[in-house]
Amino acid sequence: MLQHKLAGVGAAMITPFTRDGRVDYEALARMVDYVIEGGVDYIVTLGTTAETPTLYMPERAVIAMFITNHIAGRVPLVMGCGGNSTSEVLDQLREFDLRGADAILSVAPYYNKPSQEGLFQHFRTVSEHSPLPVILYNIPGRTGVNMTAETTLRCARELPNVIGIKEASGNIEQMQQILDNRPEGFLVLSGDDGITIELMRRGGDGVISVAANAFPKRFMSCIAHAKHGDFAAADREYEALDEAVKALFEEGNPVGVKCALAVMGLIGDTVRLPLVPGSEHLRERFKTLIAKYDLR
Q1: Domains and CATH numbers, the chain
Q2: Is 166 one of the catalytic residues?
């Protein structure tokens, strides 16, 4: 069952760039191998952490194909396919080669600030045209609008192709409302690393994670305890990660995770404007935390 395969931890992949700003495919291949060897359950590409808004559409299509080929069936793949123009999302669905993907992740339209009815009609249209199951993505801190629990549950009940949600509202009570009223098999995934264990304690299914890019083995160890219902052990394991996970977001995402990975020697720290690389203070902080807690 697909929902079972997409529970646990999905790594929200970064897009490494060369110093002159081109996609660094050698580093991307290295990162895919790193997170798979670290034990993640699946990979998510072309999401927020991938700096997708700064990627040209042809770059997105090539990245999608490259990651699909490099994964080579080792783990499931979720493809980011969203935007603030419904018709452009439908264009992506037509233009991307989705044959190697298992589902798409589609963000709530940003900037436009649609009503709840507008959100529902957007996702109804996307789900009707998607050849793959759809995971909704609610992240009001970036989109400017919160998709309420009622709208999420309406999508879950009325749109057969919608199989779950990545919930990054930070509102645990909203998440609880979805958990309490969801149809059987509807995935509720955290979009916030720091709240994942609490969400799973309440019945959530896992996380689409930024931290899994940098610290996959340690993060997977925490979530493995949570999946087995040992939340005391999960909390203890997470204590070693807590400071580092918070540091990942101090200067924004993916600035922090690229800074951590650069300190670890896995990629360069180049980001595309309007983002800028992590500060020297952040680099020193990661050097200290990685050594202190043995996070390599």
Answers
A1: 2-238 (3.20.20.70)
A2: yes
pLDDT the model gives residue 174: 98
Query: Is 227 one of the annotated active-site residues of the chain?
Result: no
176 C-beta neighbours (distance < 10 Å), count: 16
The catalytically annotated residue of 42, 166, 238, 258 is 166
Task: Report, as an integer, the average pLDDT of 163-184.
Answer: 97
The pTM of this model reads: 0.97
Catalytically annotated residue among 34, 42, 137, 238 = 137
Which residue from 4, 84, 34, 44 is spatially nearest to 209, judged by alpha carbons?
44
| pLDDT tens per residue across span 70-93 | 999 999 999 999 999 999 999 999
In three-state form (DSSP H/G/I as H, E/B as E, the rest C), the secondary structure along the chain is CHHHHCCEEEEECCCCECCCCCECHHHHHHHHHHHHHCCCCEEEECCHHHCHHHCCHHHHHHHHHHHHHHHCCCCCEEEECCCCCHHHHHHHHHHCCCCCCCEEEEECCCCCCCCHHHHHHHHHHHHHHCCCCEEEEECHHHHCCCCCHHHHHHHHHHCCCEEEEEECCCCHHHHHHHHHHCCCCCEEEECCHHHHHHHHHCCCCEEEECHHHHCHHHHHHHHHHHHCCCHHHHHHHHHHHHHHHHHHCCCCCCHHHHHHHHHCCCCCCCCCCCCCCCCHHHHHHHHHHHHHCCCC
